[in-house]
Amino acid sequence: DKPISFRDADGNFVSAADVWNEKKEGYMKSILYSKFINNPKLKEMLLSTGDKIIVECSPYDIEWGCGLGVDDFFNQNCNMNGHNKLGFALMAVREKLKEGYFKEHIS
To answer: Which pTM was predicted?
Structure first.
């Protein structure tokens, strides 16, 4: 199986996987923002985490998760084997929601 590629505006071949890897975190943040902004209960749940660090504990996912299950995560003093991209995306969305929350309630 050959990787999917295409030509960019300059005529250069570009790997679809490279484009996806470059953009997927932004897509995830947009999807999560939409999810939380449209569900007040979930929005309040996320905002209630305050400034705490959010970690996706998944022993099978080292990209979006921390690469560890919950028990292993705490047994290793919260050291992560993975990138925790979902946790970081959720924290970024939480910050955007806070900005909107303060605008709504202080204005």
So the answer is: 0.81
For residue 26, count other CB atoms closer than 10 A to its CB: 10
Would you write out the chain's pLDDT as a tens digit for each of its 107 residues?
677 888 888 888 888 888 889 999 999 999 999 999 999 999 999 999 999 999 999 999 999 999 999 988 888 777 788 999 999 999 999 999 998 866 665 55
Residue ranges in 1-107 assigned as alpha helix (H): 16-37, 40-47, 70-75, 85-106
Q: Please return the burial class of 63, using the count of CB atoms within 10 Å of its CB with bins 0-12, 13-18 and 19+.
A: middle
CA angle 32, 34, 38 (to 5 degrees): 120
